[in-house]
Amino acid sequence: MILDIMSRATREPPFVPDELDLMILEYMAKDASVQFKQLAESLNADQRTIAKRVGKMKQSGVLQNKIQINWSRIGLGIAAYVGAETSLGEKDLGKLHEFIRKEPRVIEAYSTIGSQEYFIKVIESDLQRLREEVLMQLEPITSKLTSSIISSQVKQEDDVSLLRFLRQRWFAHKKSKNRT
C-alpha cells in the first residue's frame, strides 16, 4: 500500500513543538550523532530535559532513526522522477501499487493531487536498464507516463533552514514582547 500521508495526518494528532524542541531538532539536523550533554550545553538546558524531549519526539514519530545514503557514490547515479496517471481501472491500479511495492529501485512513491496521480522516484546505474526494466514495465499499467532524469541537484534537503524559519515564524512574537 502506498503511504497515505493525507489521511494519516488527519487521524494522528500532530506533535506541537515548542522553541526548545525546534532548537534540538536544528542541532540534530546538523549532526545526528550529537550527544545530549553537548546539546544541553549549547542550548543552556538540563541534559535530562534534552533526553526527555528527544524521547518524546521519537515516540511521536517526529524524529526517526534513518541514515541518508548517497546512492551515486555506490554506482547508482541515475535518478528519475516518474509521473503516472491511471484511468485504466481498479485492476491496473492494483498492479501499479504492487509494482511500486515490489520494485526495489523505486525508493519513493506518492499519490498526489494535481497533474499526475503518482510521483515515483527510481534509481538505477544504467539508463537503458532504467528504461527497459522499470519504465517499460510501468507503461501497460498506467494511462500516461512521464519521466525526468535528474541531471544535477539544485538544493539538498535542508532541514536546518526550515527549522530556523519555523522557529522565527512561530516564536518571533515572544522576542518582540520581551523587548517592549
Question: Would you summarize the structure shown here?
Answer:
The protein has about 180 residues and is α+β, with helices and mostly antiparallel strands. About 50% of the residues lie in helices and about 15% in strands.
Topology:
Elements: H1 5-11, H2 19-30, H3 36-43, H4 47-59, E1 78-85, H5 90-102, E2 106-111, E3 118-124, H6 127-138, E4 144-149, H7 159-179
Antiparallel strand pairs: 1-3, 1-4, 2-3
Structural features, described:
It is a single chain. The chain is an alpha+beta fold and 180 residues long. It has 2 domains: 17-68, Arc Repressor Mutant, subunit A; 71-149, Lrp/AsnC effector binding domain/regulation of amino acid metabolism (RAM) domain (Alpha-Beta Plaits), CATH 3.30.70.920. 48% of the residues lie in helices and 15% in strands. Strands 2-3-1-4 form a 4-stranded antiparallel β-sheet, covered by helices on one side. The longest helix is centred in the last third of the chain and has 21 residues, at 159-179. The model has no long low-confidence stretch (mean pLDDT 89). Residues 90-148 form the Transcription regulator AsnC/Lrp ligand binding domain. One of its GO terms (cellular component) is cytosol. One of its GO terms (biological process) is response to amino acid. This is Transcriptional regulator, AsnC family.
What's the total number of strands?
4
How would you spell out the order of helices and strands?
HHHHEHEEHEH
Helix content: 40-55%
Gross CATH architecture of the largest domain: 2-Layer Sandwich
| Average predicted local confidence, pLDDT | 89
End-to-end distance, in Å?
Answer: 53 Å
- The gyration radius over C-alpha positions equals 21 Å
Overall geometry comes to elongated
The main β sheet shows up as: 4 strands, antiparallel
Q: Describe the oligomeric state of these chains in a short phrase.
A: single chain
Q: What is the count of structural domains?
A: 2
CATH class of the largest domain: Alpha Beta
Stretches where pLDDT falls below 50 for ≥5 residues?
none
Output the CATH topology of the largest domain.
Alpha-Beta Plaits
Q: Hey, roughly how much beta strand do the residues contain? A: 15-25%
Strand order, largest beta sheet: 2-3-1-4
Based on helices, strands and strand pairing, what is the structural class?
alpha+beta
> What is the helix tally?
7
The CATH homology group name of the largest domain: Lrp/AsnC effector binding domain/regulation of amino acid metabolism (RAM) domain
